[in-house]
Design goal:
Length: 247
């Protein structure tokens, strides 16, 4: 595997996504998008807000443009504005999205599929969990209800399942048994479900690795938890149909 290194200025600290509302966002001096294949990076313009909750990266297949959605939060933890940035030549400016959206807290990472961003969120007023959708093409929000059999409050890992939104959820933590959900009809909030289980000899995998995505051939990808990262580290691929796990 080719070793790719990217050099950043010394005053730029690298951070990762966090679901903690007590996070000190003032430490973030800049947000950078990096292409690991080319080694090129772009520094995003600063957002004028008291705090920044999360930024999501996506692609508009109609205009062939990359865009960034940024949620800013008030001091009380309630989202107040959503801004979008189009990455193109010339001056880059954040635009405020006029589409009204109910206050919500984002949960976990998002994924962009065919120009639509998906991320899980909790809504304080209704005390519910839903999938938030943001269409980068028309810059509008919509929402998808979770299936009644999904465990509320337990993390969903979203992924691209052959062009559809997929969701992975552990049935019992670190046992290797999990549910795979696929969104069949967004308008009707219809999901399909499949129960899977890793081979019994995979105890080490469920204790040290987590599901991070799926390949185009339908194999689930497992990467180490942050506390188990080493140099080098193993990535595992699980073939659902053949019940086969390989490095």
């Amino acid at each position: 595997m080719k070793n790719l290194e990217q050099q950043f200025s010394e005053d730029l600290s690298i951070t990762q996504s966090s679901n903690s509302w007590g996070r000190n966002w003032r430490r973030i001096k800049a947000r950078v998008i990096c292409n690991p294949l080319t080694g090129k990076s772009k520094t995003l313009p600063k957002v004028k807000a008291t705090g920044v909750g999360e930024s999501y990266f996506g692609f508009d297949p109609i205009s062939k443009q990359f865009k960034v959605l940024c949620m800013t939060w008030s001091r009380y933890g309630i989202p107040n504005t959503h801004r979008i940035l189009t990455l193109e030549t010339g001056k880059r400016l954040w635009r405020t999205i006029q589409d009204p959206v109910l206050p919500h807290f984002y949960i976990g990472d998002g994924i962009c599929i065919n120009g639509v961003l998906y991320y899980e969120a909790s809504f304080k007023e209704s005390r519910s969990y839903e999938i938030v959708c943001f269409d980068f093409k028309i810059e509008k929000f919509s929402f998808i209800k979770l299936d009644k059999d999904m465990v509320r409050g337990k993390k969903l890992t979203l992924f691209n399942y052959k062009g559809k939104l997929g969701a992975h959820q552990d049935i019992r933590w670190r046992t290797g048994k999990f549910a795979l959900w696929v969104l069949e009809d967004a308008g009707k909030h219809k999901w399909s479900k499949r129960i899977c289980a890793l081979p019994p000899f995979c105890d080490k995998i469920v204790n040290t690795h987590m599901m991070v995505g799926m390949t185009v051939t339908g194999e689930i990808v497992y990467s180490p938890y942050a506390g188990y990262l080493s140099n080098p580290f193993d990535i595992f691929y699980y073939n659902i149909e053949r019940n086969l796990l390989q490095v």
